[in-house]
Design goal:
With 363 residues, this protein is an alpha+beta fold. The chain is 36% helix and 20% strand.
């Protein structure tokens, strides 16, 4: 097993075993805000309006004509062209009803992608019971990387390190934020990134206090904090790395950097299977509080490469397990002054974790 498509096939097998255990006859993954990444992990394509998976039989992707040829070339799963966009719900119902038997079979669906109108349409016409799998079956399959799959995550993380290094080397008084972003983007694309999972963030000076900034035409000057946050993608795997740089010297800003670095390190030292994600989030906030800095307004971390878990937040119920791949990114944001965020990517191993991003956090 060596290529991304091999892991797609393995996940499909895992999914079907769970469908059998939980007596789900057909699974319907509708296009939604996060479904494209699930398609990639199952079908090796991000295109399609519905991915239909019978427990027994051949899965199928329903696709609009504009994406039909590319989807057919990318995916190992059969692709059906939907010439009439208005009939997609009708096609979904037809496919599912052809693959269910008598009684009241369970039909799994990601309810978070359903409007009430669409739900009513399916409920009235499908020969079975609609069951939401968004928080049950799907997270169990899309929890993280298989051991042999980690190498793809290492490679995209290496590209993130290359881009961060390019950004760091280009930082100088007089440079504009968008120029820094351009250098980082060119470096990662030149070395193998196929695309970016989000537009590269470069925000400096007072703008570094924005949790999610953007590169503008602001000119860098001595004493600036500069946040660089970027996310290369390759073969459907994505990294997400942030570093904050200080142009020149400033004692208070150096203290901010050191405090966030300590928060990151405290979290990393606690990562292993069985640890509560809520506890990891609390560790980071406690360190920053002890250093005299305010709480940050976002979660500690999120999954990478299209996986659904874990979420590292104050309210998370997730518990770490081997293979989970995620970010650790606490921050300090002082409006009108500046901000610091440092973000690492890690994968959970049998006894701890493997660091994926390896750029120096403090320079």
């Amino acid at each position: 097993m060596s290529e991304p498509v091999d892991f797609c096939r393995k996940r499909m097998g895992h999914l079907r075993r769970l469908m059998e255990e939980r007596e789900v006859e057909v699974l319907c993954l509708l296009r939604g805000s996060r479904t494209g990444s699930l398609y990639k992990r199952l079908a090796d394509t991000t295109s399609g309006q519905a991915l239909l998976i019978p427990r027994d039989g051949h899965p199928c992707i329903l696709c609009y004509p504009v994406n039909y040829e590319s989807t057919k070339d990318e995916s190992w799963i059969r692709v059906r062209k939907m010439e009439d966009r208005e009939k997609i719900n009708e096609e979904i119902v037809k496919f599912i009803n052809e693959h269910v038997e008598g009684g009241t079979p369970k039909i799994g669906i990601n309810m978070d992608a359903l409007t009430y109108k669409r739900y009513s349409y399916f409920k009235e016409r499908l020969k079975g019971q609609l069951v939401d799998v968004s928080q049950t079956l799907l997270p169990e399959v899309f929890y993280g990387l298989y051991p042999e799959e980690v190498r793809f995550q290492r490679e995209v993380s290496r590209l993130a390190d290359i881009a961060i290094a390019a950004a760091r080397e280009s930082i100088a008084p007089g440079m504009r934020e968008y120029e820094i972003a351009a250098e980082a983007n060119y470096a990662m694309m030149r070395r193998g990134a196929e695309m970016q999972s989000f537009p590269t963030i470069v925000s400096s000076g007072e703008r570094s206090a924005y949790c999610h900034g953007w590169p503008g035409d602001r000119t860098l000057k001595e004493g600036d904090l500069i946040i660089v946050d970027l996310g290369p993608m390759k073969q459907g795997y994505a990294a997400d790395e942030t570093r904050t740089f200080l142009l020149g010297r400033d004692e208070k800003k150096e203290k901010m950097l050191a405090a966030v670095d300590r928060a990151v390190e405290a979290v990393l030292n606690s990562i292993k299977p069985g640890v509560s994600c809520r506890d990891l989030d609390a560790i980071s906030r406690r360190v920053l509080r002890e250093e005299g800095f305010p709480d940050y307004p976002h979660s500690l971390g999120h999954p990478l490469s299209g996986f659904l878990v874990p979420i590292l937040s104050k309210r998370s119920g997730d518990v770490l397990r081997e293979g989970m791949v995620f970010t650790v990114e606490p921050g300090i944001y002082l409006p009108g002054y500046g901000g610091v965020r440092l973000e690492e990517n890690v994968v959970v191993t049998e006894y701890g974790y493997e660091p994926l991003t390896k750029s120096p956090r403090l320079t």
